[in-house]
Structure to design on (433 residues):
């Protein structure tokens, strides 16, 4: 981390401000389902930036269901999964869409619990559709856009309310002319929109800006094909204003200095983003357990993506803790130190240094994993070898995050002490008896 020390770091007040601010926010995720027809290698992709007040996340293996699964959860919770993959190569994520709610009170699965049930029981998109058909009858407490891919090449999105759903097929040219479907926090069926709405159609609908930004970033790659690495770097960390223009100095912006502060009300990478995944599926005929869940714990602008697989013997320690995976907790601290006092904006002074330190490590992890995947697809891989590789990649990320934390702390210690508080003189006369 490179810092000039021109701005005092509010170490003691950061966490308090962050918790106060996040406690007032709701789910505000941005997602995409990308068919193998649109990717650089023919394998489908599934992406989600998770925005929620639940800032502490971890990665957990679930082995009690019909199918073994791995997913990102609220730290310490095992009742819900918010994005994940199972041993059959079925993968799922969601974005909240309140406009799908109905006035009638329903019982049954919430969004996270439905995804857990799906990962523990569904092998294909058809299986997931059957689960929705069944729960249409009993009712659910769902209001979400569920993105799913499977090992048969399936890629689809389901706009799902408590008693109904509508499916959009990313392999269908009518539903997805470019092979991908983006959603933020609205449902096209609830808003009477076309399946691929334009910015003009969306108007002032909440989260329209993030939807348009994600579409724009994907559109720029449709000629060459979309890669997992591109989604990790250019979508999870996108910083664009409400007019869909990336801020200068950001990952998608022109090479100029960043503005001193950034409002993240309309950006994809937001002050409320607590984790992200980019799931790289498999081609039909490949081993489904090789589906790779690239996981970012913490805000993506302050963290590193690491590969996870459902067949590991155990999740690497820096990702798994009932109080929050350590990599994510460091990212929370780095983000907190960069927040403005009201918690709503980001001071950008430290961002270029953080990126120049962390992203080369992430590039190394991506390169090594890509080479390993090519070998495994041809020769297979034991669970022990897979676990060892997973742990090594996570260790690389953890070491980089710890070094960044040490440098940030050192910068804070090198700053001069703040001036003592000044109090207004007492004007009232106090008579002591």
């Amino acid at each position: 981390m490179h810092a000039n020390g021109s701005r005092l770091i509010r170490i003691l007040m950061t966490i308090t401000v962050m918790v106060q601010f996040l406690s007032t926010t709701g789910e505000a995720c941005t997602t995409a389902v990308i068919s193998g027809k649109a990717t650089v290698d023919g394998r489908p992709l599934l992406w989600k930036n998770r925005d929620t007040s639940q800032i502490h996340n971890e990665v957990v293996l679930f082995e009690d269901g019909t199918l073994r699964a791995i997913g990102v959860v609220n730290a310490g919770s095992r009742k819900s999964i918010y994005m994940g993959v199972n041993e059959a190569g079925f993968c799922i994520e969601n974005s909240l869409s309140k406009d799908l709610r109905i006035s009638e009170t329903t019982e049954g699965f919430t969004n996270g619990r439905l995804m857990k049930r799906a990962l523990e029981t569904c092998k294909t998109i058809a299986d997931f559709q059957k689960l929705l058909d069944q729960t249409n009858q009993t009712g659910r407490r769902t209001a979400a856009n569920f993105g799913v891919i499977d090992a048969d090449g399936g890629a689809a999105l389901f706009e799902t309310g408590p008693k109904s759903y509508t499916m959009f097929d990313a392999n269908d040219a009518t539903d997805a002319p470019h092979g991908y479907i983006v959603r933020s926090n609205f449902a096209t069926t609830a808003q009477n929109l076309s399946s691929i709405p334009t910015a003009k159609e969306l108007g002032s609908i909440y989260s329209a800006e993030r939807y348009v930004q994600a579409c724009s970033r994907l559109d720029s790659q449709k000629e060459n094909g979309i890669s997992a690495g591109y989604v990790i770097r250019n979508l999870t960390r996108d910083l664009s204003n409400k007019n869909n223009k990336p801020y200068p100095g950001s990952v998608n912006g022109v090479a100029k200095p960043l503005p001193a502060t950034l409002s993240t009300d309309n950006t994809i990478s937001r002050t409320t983003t607590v984790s992200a995944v980019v799931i790289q599926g498999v081609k039909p005929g490949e081993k489904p357990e090789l589906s790779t869940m690239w996981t970012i714990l913490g805000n993506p602008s302050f963290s590193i993506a690491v590969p996870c697989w459902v067949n590991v013997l155990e999740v690497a320690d820096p990702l798994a803790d009932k109080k929050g995976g350590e990599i994510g907790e460091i990212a929370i601290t780095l983000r907190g130190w960069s927040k403005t006092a009201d918690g709503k904006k980001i001071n950008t002074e430290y961002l270029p240094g953080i990126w120049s330190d962390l992203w080369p490590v992430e590039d190394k992890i991506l390169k090594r994993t890509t080479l390993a995947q090519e070998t495994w697809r041809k020769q297979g891989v034991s669970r022990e070898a897979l676990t060892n590789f997973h742990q090594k990649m996570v260790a690389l990320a953890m070491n980089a995050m710890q070094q960044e934390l040490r440098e940030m702390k050192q910068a804070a210690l090198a700053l001069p002490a703040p001036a003592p508080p000044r109090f207004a003189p007492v004007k009232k006369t106090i008579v002591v008896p």
Remarks:
- The longest strand covers residues 273-280.
- The mean pLDDT is 91.
- The first helix runs from residue 11 to 22.
